[in-house]
Amino acid sequence: MKRERAINAAVVLAMLVVPLWAWMADEPFILTLATKVAILALAGVGLNIALGLGGLVSFGHAAFFGIGGYAMGILASHVQSYTPLMEWPLLIEGSKSMPVIWVVAMMASGLAALVIGALSLRTSGVYFIMITLAFGQMLYYFAISWSAYGGEDGLSIYVRNGFPGLNTLDPVQFLLLCYAVLGVVLFGAARLARSPFGLALSAARQSAARVETVGIAPYRVRLVAFAISGAVTGLAGALYADLNRFVSPTMFSWHTSGEIMVFVILGGVARLFGPVAGAALYILLEHLLGGVSDYWQIWLGLLLLAVVLFARGGLIGTLAGREVAHD
Amino acid sequence: MTEVVLQTRGISKAFGAVQASTEISLDLRAGEIHALIGPNGAGKSTLIKQIAGNLAPDSGTVQFLGRDVTGLGTVARARMGLGRTFQISALAMEHTVLQNAVLGALGARGGVFRFFRDVMRNRELTEVAMQALERVGLQDQAATRTAELSHGQRRQLEVAVALTLGPRAFLMDEPMAGLGAEGSKHLTGLLDGLRAEAPILLVEHDMDAVFALADRISVLVYGRVIATGTGPEIRANAEVRQAYLGAEDAA
């Protein structure tokens, strides 16, 4: 555990030093990349609760990422066009306030995860992977055909949403805001892993029969975990939309699900900082190799293959060695 | 001694044309170890699953603590205090020994849906867990990863987890399976002391253990209970000798 802590500290340090350098060297693009890492890491932290702790291989987390993104897009676009969200029976206006958008994004994606989970958690293994994929794709095609909100073209939000007391248009302030959100969620995820719920969830991953035999229903534990996981990924979706000031059906596509899963696997499944390291590595590779060739993902593919074959614990797991996870 | 804790009344179960259980009526009384023996394929596992709640019988009822639990699942029966151990250890192998025991204590006391407090710092749970580990002699292994335990120690841990439930009855599926003579003897001693706590329905292949421990023995052959009685009665039963013990006794 000590070594993993040291590695986590190194990851945090790198995440702070790189933007600090970029800020001093006046490289706003690097700041944007760091922000992107933080947001994608957040999406991965969400997935890691289901995948790492619960062993639920969800190939449909794009659904929650997209719902979070569209929550932001829909709320902000109504403000942008001066039209209320609905007038009857209640007058509901859109919002340009991040806290409001985040709450809506988390509630909507958490609720969607509850419904999708309730149906798909009745299956397991390959069927679970396929059914979550199917739900993700359903939402993808729904978003494409939803012409009220841009259909295939998506929605552009011209001004970034606000946060009380901050100028979110300043890259540094927005970066720090995203870091703060990631930090709070990481703290919560660490607590969750050690909580009674975390113990039951990870035990259910290892032996469902054991959990049943002590009088705990694995289905309910997994369902709640899936909802929490979806809500966190939804929050990341809302932030991602705000980073790009743009929402499109791509957020729902299965590529997105795959990418979020790649962050977790690259960094280390069930490791607290796994998704952070994974997202950072992914963006780093995209940036470095992408400059060399358009086909950089070939190298990503090879790296992923190497991780799966030789370094099961991902970046963090390999460096920290085999230990009792979440002890 | 006559209080019936767990009882099956005429339960039958068929898989297609195979009749796995036929009109099985058994009872487990307070303070006893009731062993269930029978040759391979006699339907012992099917019976255990129906008692534990994994399988619903086609007909007949299961009663636990005077309640008809036929319609309840494994989770509900565990919560009522049915402590089960498995033929093949079902433990959280990546967790420590203590974490497995704490999981049992957590299940029995409720409060799984708490997300913030460190469960291993919950005194109430860890104390119950440590007591159970002490009962089976695993207190020194509390911090060991379960995967690193020997086969026999895993068996002991299964019993410890069942103990954390504060069980009203134990359901043990071949606890001696795969244990050496030494381990078998150790576990026999442990089970001997448990019957005062809660009666044990013991499915076991190890005949030495069965005859050493059991107050009563039921013999299952082709899905039917052909005899129930004390050790000497079972040894003397002609039908049992022919169906099951015959070869061993003749030798």
Automatic annotation (TrEMBL), chain A:
GO terms for cellular component: plasma membrane. It is a multi-pass membrane protein. Keywords: Cell membrane, Membrane, Transmembrane, Transmembrane helix. The keyword Protein biosynthesis does not apply. It is found in: Cell membrane. InterPro entries: ABC_transp_permease, LivM-like. The chain crosses the membrane at residues 7-24, 30-50, 62-80, 100-119, 126-149, 172-193, 223-240, 260-285, 297-320. The keyword Cell membrane applies. Its main location: membrane. One of its GO terms (molecular function) is branched-chain amino acid transmembrane transporter activity. Coiled coil: none annotated. It comes from the Bacteria. This is Amino acid/amide ABC transporter membrane protein 2, HAAT family. It comes from Thalassovita taeanensis.
UniProtKB/TrEMBL annotation, chain B:
GO terms for molecular function: ATP binding; ATP hydrolysis activity. GO terms for cellular component: plasma membrane. The keyword Nucleotide-binding applies. Residues 6-247 form the ABC transporter domain. Keywords: ATP-binding, Nucleotide-binding, Transport. It holds the Pfam family BCA_ABC_TP_C. This is Amino acid/amide ABC transporter ATP-binding protein 1, HAAT family (TC 3.A.1.4.-). It comes from Thalassovita taeanensis. The lineage of its organism: Bacteria, Pseudomonadati, Pseudomonadota, Alphaproteobacteria, Rhodobacterales.
